[in-house]
Design a protein that fits this description.
Structural class: alpha+beta
CATH class of the largest domain: Alpha Beta
Radius of gyration: 18 Å
CATH topology of the largest domain: Signal recognition particle alu RNA binding heterodimer, srp9/1
Helix content: 10-25%
Shape: elongated
Order of helices and strands: EHEEEEHEEEEEHEH
Number of strands: 11
Length: 174
């Protein structure tokens, strides 16, 4: 059996704040919504893909004021370097704290949603680097500069090479 990732569901307190963030800042669209059961909390389904009913859902059932649960972060892949740059500008304009981290195989932005749920948005570089590894990267770089920086920074790391040459190398590694 091969599993493929489908969606995540977050328990949230402030429906409006969370919806504004995921729809306005991250570009999700609400695909459905309603009570889970009679007199139950609402569930709101969101997606960025027309052929996916939902990639993310929120349930308005969280009551505590403590930091989010044991989830570390949700990660989203984008198609282009420009997507990372555009999101970085949106997050900066919204006053969101951003941790720009490259793993060698990605250029990533780490940040929290308004309720403290960790998020990562990343773009794949053409390289493979053994993990874990991470170095802060300069989001003011253009694509060519960023790729040159990644290659220079990670080329001396274990298992550095072209992504297509490393496919599957990390699976079943002891």
């Amino acid at each position: 059996m091969k599993l493929s990732w489908s969606h995540a569901v977050l328990n949230v307190r402030d429906e409006k704040k969370i919806l504004d963030f995921y729809t306005g800042t991250l570009g999700f669209n609400v695909s459905d919504r309603g009570p889970i059961a009679e007199n139950g909390p609402n569930i709101i389904f969101m997606s960025q893909k027309e052929d996916e009913h939902h990639q993310l859902a929120i349930v308005t059932s969280r009551k505590d004021e403590d930091p989010s649960n044991s989830l570390n972060h949700l990660a989203f892949r984008v198609e282009s370097f420009d997507d990372v740059k555009t999101l970085n500008a949106k997050l900066e304009a919204a006053g969101v704290d951003i941790l720009p981290l490259s793993h060698g195989n990605t250029l990533s932005l780490y940040f929290n949603d308004p309720e403290g749920n960790g998020l990562e948005v990343f773009w794949d570089t053409p390289w493979h680097v053994a993990q874990p590894d991470g170095v802060l990267w300069d989001t003011s770089l253009n694509k060519e500069q960023a790729l040159a920086w990644v290659e220079e920074t990670f080329s001396n790391k274990p298992a550095f090479g072209k992504r297509e040459d490393a496919t599957g190398e990390w699976i079943n590694r002891p």
